[in-house]
Amino acid sequence: MSGITRRKLLAGSVLAGFLGLTQPLSSSAIGRTIPWRNWSGNLVAHPAKRFSPASESELADYLKVSRGAVRPVGSGHSFSALVPTDGDLIVIDQLKGLLDHDEVNETATFGAGTRLGDIGPLLERVEQAMINLPDIDRQTLAGATATATHGTGIRFPCLSGFVEEIRLLTMKGETLDVSASKGIDLFNAASVSLGALGIVTSMKLQNRKPYRLKAVNGCEPIEEVLEHFDESAQRHRHYEMFPLTHSDYALTLAIDETEEPINNPPPSAEEAAIFANAMSGWSKVPPALRKPLVDGMASMIGDSQAIDVSYRILSNIRNNRFNEMEYSVPLDAGAPCLREIVKTIIDKEIDVVFPLEYRYVRRDDTWLSMSSGDEDHAAISIHRTASEDYRPYFDLIEPIFWKYGGRPHWGKIHSLGFKELKDLYPRFRDFAEIRESLDPEGRLLNEHLRKLFLPGDR
Ligand SMILES: Cc1cc2nc3c(=O)[nH]c(=O)nc-3n(C[C@H](O)[C@H](O)[C@H](O)COP(=O)(O)OP(=O)(O)OC[C@H]3O[C@@H](n4cnc5c(N)ncnc54)[C@H](O)[C@@H]3O)c2cc1C
Predict the structure, then answer these.
(1) How many Å from the N-terminal Cα to the C-terminal Cα in the chain?
(2) What's the pTM value of the predicted model, to 2 decimals?
(3) Ligand 1 site, CB within 6 A
(4) What is the pLDDT of residues 383-395, one digit of tens each?
């Protein structure tokens, strides 16, 4: 088994988790009351109707005359109940594509419904590239930024940190062009809006010249990775790890710019199947007896590498559906928080084979991102296969995040409400006020958002 590589291991396994193919809202569904589901299937809703505007003016007209609850939806990749509504679902998938670009400043404006995965090839044509991307690229631009979706890298803020301008249609049908120069408070609020301020129709992004990346995957003992994590995070453009559960080992991923030729072979399906079987074998062994098996396989994983254009290296295809909880903690709290989670999984014999994820994200000025404020943050994720009940596991781990001052990822599962959130973000109350002023009737509030933004609504 000496030829095992992390890439092959991930390709067909439970560890792979993650695929980004959502169930798109087909045009034949528009106007019909059919259920909406998110990517992982933990959320179902029965919207009164779906409205998919073909243009900004069609959307503005709709907002002026419509009454009742509405929720905007992107590609439905959030695990938290941001989208579900029994009112109207606003689907902005027709508002997409590259609308404008500026060669000198390396900025470009996109329709807000553009999938992140479509942005790379579109930007390539105008000699630009996104500066960073999350783990998958099936999300829409508006959906990803609404929850402060982030990638990896101590030098890179979440995607909202690269937004320069936002076009926002309010519930009154007004069009607001929001940017730092036109009003810094509204800009910092609207950059991570949870879809609570209005409907975003386009966004201008700060980009850079196209570049090529080399990803090197490895496997090392968790404690050794933690020992050099800060140094590795500084040395590499991107550095992260996936601690294996019931194991001393973590998969590691280091990504750097390169001029080397593209070499990105697809993972072998046959080998992927071998490892998928091996790992489904772990799940049949009681957690308390699993460690020698997992450690044994992990110690045989060799390094592997891939070189490609930036967007094909930064984002992945995740095949197996799962649910996820992710919190960010201040950088100094990252290692102790991760250690406590790893130990709790072992001590409580939690029956989970999915790895954790540990990455750094740079601070930013938005009001509601996980890294907003003066400090960089460590983001820690736990996952559970979609077919299993995630609640007992997530309920056990969530208080550990709280102990270390954790802030939840808005698009992932958490149980916090206004009472706790108002103290986690210095500008949380300011955001709640702007929300109220833009949507005084609360038409954009569903049950989940009421819990987040209305004091006393628990
Ligand atoms: C497999 C997988 C991998 C992931 N990897 C990462 C990762 O690496 N890093 C990370 O940070 N997150 C990650 N996520 C989380 C994901 O990026 C976020 O949940 C993201 O918000 C989903 O985008 P979406 O387009 O699916 O939006 P949705 O989930 O459909 O909506 C998200 C929010 O955006 C709002 N919204 C959508 N469109 C508009 C609009 N036009 N105007 C205003 N508001 C709008 C919605 O109302 C909602 O509040 C991952 C999720 C999955 C399923």
Answers:
(1) 53
(2) 0.93
(3) 18, 20, 39, 71-78, 82-83, 92, 112, 134-136, 139-140, 142-144, 146-147, 149-150, 193-195, 199-200, 318, 409, 411
(4) 999 999 999 999 9
